[in-house]
Each structure stands twice: as C-alpha cells, then as structure tokens.
C-alpha cells in the first residue's frame, strides 16, 4: 500500500480560455479522508477546477501540490500514478465490453499508458488478469453492481454506468477521488446510495472532491464546502457555515 498521502492543495490557480478567466486565483485544500464539496452556479469554474486537478488542463498560474510533491506533469495518466482518479459528467464507458472489463481497465492505467494502450494490452499475463479480475469484482461489489459483472456495458442504464465509473476509479486505490456531478440523472433512492458510497470511500482514507448540483447531497455528506462564483472562491467552510453564508445564499442557493 502506498504511504499515506498528504493534503491536496491548490494555491492561487488561474486558467483562462482566450482571455476569459474560467478560474481566477482559486485556493482549495482537501485532506485525506475528507469529502470536499465544490459548488457554484453554472459557469463558475467547477469543472475547470476538476480538470486542472486531474491534469486535463494546465493552469496558467498558481501551484498545485499533493503533500510535498508538486503536481506538474500534463498527462492525466500521470495523475493516476499520483493516486488521483476521477469520473466524468458523461460516463466514459466502452459499450461493447462487459461491465467487469470496463472496471478492470481502471486497474491497469498507469503513468505510461493511455486508455487505448491499456485496453489493447489487457490482459498481459494470466496471473495479472486473475488478480485484476478479483479486484474488479470487489470494486463492483463495493458499488453494489456485482450482479451486472458480465453484462455488456451498453445494456446498462445511465445511472448504473455512474456507479461503474466509480468502481473503475476505485481500481486505482486512489488517494483522491474527483467526482464530476455523480448524482446527475439519479433517482433520490440512488442518490442516497451514492452518498453512502462516497462516505464509505472517504472513511477508508480517500479524499473526495465532489462537484455536484444536488445541494442536499452536498450538505448531507460533505465535511467541507467550497463555493465558486465567476471563477473565484466566494466562500469556504463547513456545510453549517455555508448554509447561512449571506453571499452564498443570495448568489447561489437562491433563498
Ligand atoms: P461550471 O463547471 O461551474 O459550470 P466551467 O468550469 O465549465 O463551470 O466553466 C467556467 C467558465 O469557463 C465558463 O465561462 C465557461 O464558458 C468557460 N470554459 C470552460 N471550459 C472552456 C473551454 N474548454 N473553452 C472555452 N471556455 C471554457
């Protein structure tokens, strides 16, 4: 097992697209085992922040660190080597492969391989494959989908695919897990299950950065909430503090 990670820290991060500052001086800190909610109106910079942390975008200013290590390298796969895993707003699933295969892929992404290289190289050795398969079955069990292991992924419902994506991300045994609107399109029952799952993951020591529109889920399960507005941090604090924060209430919660 990898040594306990330090805190994930963003310090004054700026990224502009053609002159428009999508995020403008964002500070953010996630501790191991913490569920950290990132909320804000549409266009406030939530996804951009997540894309910067996961290595999809390079910030033009600022500093990002995990413990004492700077996070600099550009490729998302290098982030995986640091123990940072993510899911996407739209699940990225290989429809023709089984659910189990989709999850197994998560365990083989490393600092060198791209998603495609990883898929084509799978399996390299029988022993690796057995080990990988075992881990993937455990990951599916953790998200409650073990009964769908051998189904073709394109037969699953959208909501089920969200859980498959989380299972795949768990295969990296991530120090930090970044979730981009995991509750979108889920029923209230499924959102409850998602909330319990995220909390169970955090109790194992994984820090979770959660971008989410469902305010209830955010306030139920987060230890800390950061609110973005126009690419800047409007407020940061416990759910109890954020709920009553004047500017947040008027800018975002609409009460
Ligand atoms: P949120 O996730 O909070 O809805 P985003 O991070 O998607 O916000 O967007 C923040 C701002 O950056 C918006 O004004 C958006 O239009 C802009 N933006 C985001 N991604 C891009 C991009 N790839 N190219 C140009 N502008 C972008």
UniProtKB/TrEMBL annotation:
<protein>
    <submittedName>
        <fullName>Branched-chain amino acid ABC transporter ATP-binding protein/permease</fullName>
    </submittedName>
</protein>
<feature type="domain" description="ABC transporter">
    <location>
        <begin position="8"/>
        <end position="255"/>
    </location>
</feature>
């Amino acid at each position: 097992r990898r040594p306990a990670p330090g805190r994930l820290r963003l310090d004054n991060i700026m990224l502009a697209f053609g002159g428009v500052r999508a995020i403008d001086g964002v500070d953010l800190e996630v501790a191991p085992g913490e569920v950290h909610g990132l909320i804000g109106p549409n266009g406030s910079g939530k996804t951009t922040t997540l894309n910067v942390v996961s290595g999809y975008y390079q910030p033009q200013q600022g500093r990002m660190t995990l413990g004492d290590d700077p996070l600099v390298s550009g490729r998302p796969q290098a982030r995986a080597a640091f123990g940072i895993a993510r899911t996407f707003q739209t699940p990225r699933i290989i429809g023709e492969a089984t659910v189990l295969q989709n999850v197994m892929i998560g365990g083989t992404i490393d600092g060198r391989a791209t998603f495609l290289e990883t898929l084509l190289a799978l399996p390299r050795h029988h022993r690796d494959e057995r080990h990988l398969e075992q881990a993937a079955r455990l990951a599916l069990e953790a998200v409650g989908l073990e009964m769908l292991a051998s189904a073709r992924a394109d037969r699953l419902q959208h909501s089920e695919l969200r859980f498959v994506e989380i299972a795949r991300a768990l295969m990296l045994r991530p120090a930090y897990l970044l979730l981009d609107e995991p509750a979108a399109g889920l029923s209230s029952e499924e959102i409850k299950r998602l909330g319990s799952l995220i909390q169970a993951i955090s109790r194992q020591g994984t820090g979770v950065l959660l971008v989410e529109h469902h305010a209830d889920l955010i306030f139920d399960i987060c230890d800390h909430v950061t609110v973005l507005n126009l690419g800047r941090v409007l407020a940061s604090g416990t759910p109890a503090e954020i709920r009553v924060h004047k500017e947040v209430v008027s800018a975002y919660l609409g009460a």
